[in-house]
Amino acid sequence: LKLLHASIVLECEGDLRRNLMQRISRQLGDATVSDLLFSSPNGEFALYNIDIVHELVQLFKLEDEPTDVSKARVARLVDGYLAEAACDPALPSTQFVNLAELISGFPRSSHDGLYRAIDMYLKEHPDLSKSEKRRICR
């Protein structure tokens, strides 16, 4: 993940970065929330680059043999990440929801982490429309 951070800072693109992300996705369950806090690219107002995390989770889902245990670990990781990212006032609700929906089918012992992230997002974004609030809560 530190190499991925460096590749982003150095603006590396293409096969090298894609290969690195595929390797990371195989071990995503071993990451921590702080490992996933990639800064947003220059010129964007959001604090964190949620697109990178979204892509890593997508690659994880494409792996041939993710077990229920590894899926549960990734779900817990993403719930924690969403709770952290929810504090970003510039995070669009669509990105928040898209990442949450990506792991919606993963097994978990509890949904408390996801509920906490949703609660934090709603508190940080009080000006959301009713339809946006419904979409987030579903």
From TrEMBL:
Ranges for domain NPH3 come to: 1-138
Recorded coiled-coil stretches: none
Which GO biological process annotations does it have?
protein ubiquitination
Q: Which UniProt keywords apply?
A: Ubl conjugation pathway
Record InterPro entries: NPH3/RPT2-like (IPR043454), NPH3_dom (IPR027356)
| Top-level taxon of origin | Eukaryota
Asked if the record carries the keyword GTP-binding, the reply is no
Q: Which PANTHER family match?
A: OS12G0117600 PROTEIN
Family as reported in the entry's similarity comment: Belongs to the NPH3 family.
Protein name per the record = NPH3 domain-containing protein
From what organism does this protein derive? Genlisea aurea
